[in-house]
Amino acid sequence: MARTTAAIYPRHPDKSRCRHRLTSRGKATVDECAGRGDYAADCSNCGETLDNSLKVVLEMVIGRHLREHTATTTEA
Ligand SMILES: [Zn+2]
Ligand SMILES: [Zn+2]
After folding, report:
1. Taking the model in full, what pTM does it have?
2. Domain spans of the chain, in order of start
């Protein structure tokens, strides 16, 4: 069974995924990039997109989400 993961990636303000190089403050370095709006992560188990404007909060949201999957498969 594959381990469920949800890698965090930055998104533009319009919620599209940002694959550009950003400065440490999330500012754009190329003209076609709008800069970082928030963070998101796609769950590899259910495909749900989790998001939050704060990375530390999103990490907690992901942790809770992944535990929910574990809980449903090992439910007593
Ligand atoms: Zn971008
Ligand atoms: Zn999930």
Report:
1. 0.84
2. 8-63
